[in-house]
Specification:
About 60% of the residues lie in helices and about 0% in strands. With about 90 residues, it is mostly helical. The N and C termini lie far apart (about 50 Å).
Amino acid sequence: MDTAQAPHHTAPPCAGTPAAASRRSRLNRLLGPGLVKPALFLMCLLPAACLFWAAIFDQLGTNPGQAPIRPLGDWTLRFLVIVLAVTL
């Protein structure tokens, strides 16, 4: 019977470095005591809220089924560009 142990999972080499910890602490100070993240989340919901508002007040036009496709696609591309810009 072989009693070999499974290899241990190790973190990426740069994850535990002091530079990575310093970057995380600067980011935590920048984001503050938990107010920025919820505010950013609510701002990301703004396009859906505007679309909902237009639907409630019958401002979607003659084809309300197709009206949200273009604005939601535009916002999807904007959020994609923002996410890619942040991760560079």
